[in-house]
Amino acid sequence: MKNISKVFYITIGLIIIAVGYGALAPESFEALTTRGKSFVSTSFGWYYMLLMSVMLLVSIFFIFSPYGKIRLGKDTDRPDFSLISWLAMLFSAGMGIGLVFYGAAEPLSHFATSPATEEPNTDAAFKEGLRQSFFHWGLHVWAMYGVIALTLAYFQFRKGEPGLISATLKPIFGKKMEGPWGVLVDVLAVFATAFGVATSLGFGAVQINAGLNYLFGFEIGIFSQFIIISVVTVLFVASAWSGLSKGIKYLSNLNLILALALLLFVIVLGPTLLILNMFTDSFGGYLANIIQMSFRTAPLSSTNRDWLDMWTIFYWAWWISWAPFVSMFIARVSKGRTIREFMIGVLLVPTLLGAIWFSSFGTTAIDIQKRGVADLASLSTELTIFEMFNTMPFSFIISLVAILLIASFFITSADSATFVLGMQSTNGSLTPPNSVKLTWGVIQSTIALILLSVNGLTALQNTIIIAALPFSFIMILMVISLFKSLNGETKLKKKR
């Protein structure tokens, strides 16, 4: 295939080795990756907490600094997409299936099963559960995505560099990034993206399967999941084939409409007044406690530390592993916006929407649990949301909307990733060939299917967490490189 870089072939080789190991010796693979994940969580937890906090401070700095006026592109460039379409695309790529998968299950778990610091099934655990969910899906995540996306967009559209992670490090390392070291950086980014999305595809297939079983009695198992992934693969490859301005944009807008419809259903049919009060109180609590939450490592409490390893530090590593894909996609659709406009949009809008989402779904699930209507806390994560809907009016319609939303998020995340993987495999091309996108689409789905068939999703998840560590160092270098280039640009302007 024309314009294919070394990154493509090296990454494919690594994927074959990893997936082959996972398929042929699943128990050994899981044991090995679990040990690796535990080591990373235990030894580098403090580092992840500091890193994500620094990213938040950097993003706030960009909003208020003189750099905010600089445009991501030429001074005459204007955005390619409307504000709504832009927000819809970055939201769909960044959170996707996770919101539906964890929207009710995570706050409920923090309330009934494993609270961070409070006693289970108490009002204090209720509030803390929502605060922690906001924290895990809020400002820190989007600050990290935003800063990395900003770096990529700045070098790509302002400086005319190819859309590669390695290209952003040229102010520090110069031409070295065009050789083997640059290939290493890009391979790491592509590897993390391919496996991160494959994991998401696996979880999405499991949840769609659970929803179809709940509504129509579809058997839960690998055969059903094979059919689901096959159908979705055809759809997301077709979307990626049609390009950004058609398939991905329209699907992202559809996501936003379906997500808002489902959210409205839950707010109106659930405990409306309690939802509104809990959102107001808990969001205020989140903002009031954000500094303490950002730096908490629980060094003297093994119980609290275990919780941090299982939740917060896991999430931070998980989001970092997704950064190459999500940030690259956000960068690609953000040409023409100013740095200030970009950072405000990326940081605030998804955070606020995510908080409203968790307040609505989490409060409804916890209220059902508290009143004894159903024991939602005992269910598997993928079933929680459907059993919650079962206790509400119009449950069939709401569940159907939820399945459509999961499928739509599923397709959008996958076709966004296919586009990004195509870019990374063709030396940063803004219009990667359809043959490359098709290849990556099939590869992602194959990874998900193989690992689902041997119950290897946990091991895959562990692999991503381990891969996040080396990429986190690259992130730091990217930020240093960005500041170096911005300083050079402002000095040049002053001389003029």
Uncertain regions: pLDDT < 50 for 5+ in a row?
Answer: none
What is the makeup of the main sheet? none
Q: How many structural domains?
A: 1
- Overall residue-averaged pLDDT value: 88
By secondary-structure content and strand pairing, the structural class works out as: mainly alpha
| CATH-defined fold name | Amino acid/polyamine transporter I
Q: What would you say the CATH architecture is?
A: Up-down Bundle
Strand content: under 5%
Query: With helices defined by DSSP (H or I, 4 residues minimum), what is the helix count?
Result: 19
What spatial form do the alpha-carbon principal axes imply?
Answer: globular
* Helix amount: over 70%
Task: Determine and state the CATH class.
Answer: Mainly Alpha
Rg over CA atoms, rounded to whole Å, is: 22 Å
Sketch the topology as an H/E string, one letter per element.
HHHHHHHHHHHHHHHHHHH
Q: Cα distance, first to last residue?
A: 46 Å
What is the strand tally?
0
